[in-house]
Amino acid sequence: MAALLVLAASTEFLLVAVAAYTAAVLYHRLILLDSPNVAYIQESLLIATLQLLASIGLQQYSRIQTQPRHVFLWSGASSVFFVFSFFISTIFLLKISEGYSRATVIAQAVSVLFTVLCTRAIWFSILQPAIASGLIEARRIILIGNPSHCLQFSARALATGIRTIRSFDFPTARTDISVAPRPGATQALPDTRQLVANCRPLRADDIVILTSESDVPSALTLAGALSDLPVDVHVVPVGSMDLMAVSRITQFGNMVTMRIFQCPLTPFNRAIKRMFDIAAAIAALIMVSPLFVIIPLAIKLESRGPVLFRQTRHGYNNEPIRVLKFRTMTVMEDGDDFRPVVRHDPRVTRLGSLLRHTNIDELPQLFNVLAGTMSLVGPRPHATSQNEVFAEVISSFSRRHNVKPGITGWAQVNGYRGDTDTLEKMQRRVEHDLYYIDNWSLLFDLKIMLMTLFSRKVYWNAY
Fold it and tell me: Closest Cα partner for 412 from 369, 363, 378?
């Protein structure tokens, strides 16, 4: 595993150097019509070195096993921003910026960013499946605890490429019966030295102590003894494995807490997503503006009634919102009167069928996006009556509302849309929505938007 990580970092170093120099050459030859300064070779190597040092210093590659793709890519983009900020500040302070074209440096930054993102996406797609399948041995651990607990923990660890190389029974505390123990005295653990001696030649990366609540003091004593070994020592309460699997130890003021769930988007991420929504919604409205003239006329010519259909649905934090759609039915059902559309539904007009099959009926929701009640990408909002039914039978259903609902979503581009006549269909939709919430990134949003335009699955069950 270490060799592969070194190879991945070395590959990124070489490609960043090539990308930086190539960008300088192309800009000078195609735009400035001259030859680039020889100093750009040294500059490109310096940029690649700074990028490598940033990646190593922040342990970006060594954490590839424990972080999702978007975090790995975002960390690379952040390091590129840091590298060029440092580089530009340095040449300015040293007053050596005369030899460098500002436009060339910008072109290099864009080229390096694109190279880093592509390189990391490729390495992630290679390493992560290999780790999960066990083809690459990521970490080797020793377990200490009850055999059944060790077996359970080992199975969960193996799913992430962590292999258990040995397990030992947890040593029980003892006292010398010839001497009465003093109050507060730490009880000795039998065979601790022998346990350390048995672990030493195994050369594990980590030792995990699986302890019950009553054995916590003994576990701390054992951890102290195991600190003689050059490994990371972990203590896991056996009754809280499921809890520990979803928790993170965080700094909370001047205290340390175990955070079980995290707000899906930080204030910064919400601001980024909001700015992207506004810019993309305005661009989309400009491009499809002719449809806002043609479709209302066609709706009016086919059937009587309003052009737009407003329906109450649940939005962010379960707050009611009014969602806009082009009217596609002969009825205006809302609230408790709502009945989901089914295949060959007589309530759907001929024009409405076309609009629904092409998803054009959703276009007015771009105004919901501009108003801030919806996002371009997110869990699709359901009618309030549907929400109330499924929230009773699916425990995590309301987590869908921890982000703004979207015009399109991860569930929809994977074919989970349309009729929800069975609990299983809704559960699959919720699973995809929660995956989106837990793995959000701006790149993920872009991927879903592209799939919305070009994936056939988007049009499954559209009726």
Answer: 378
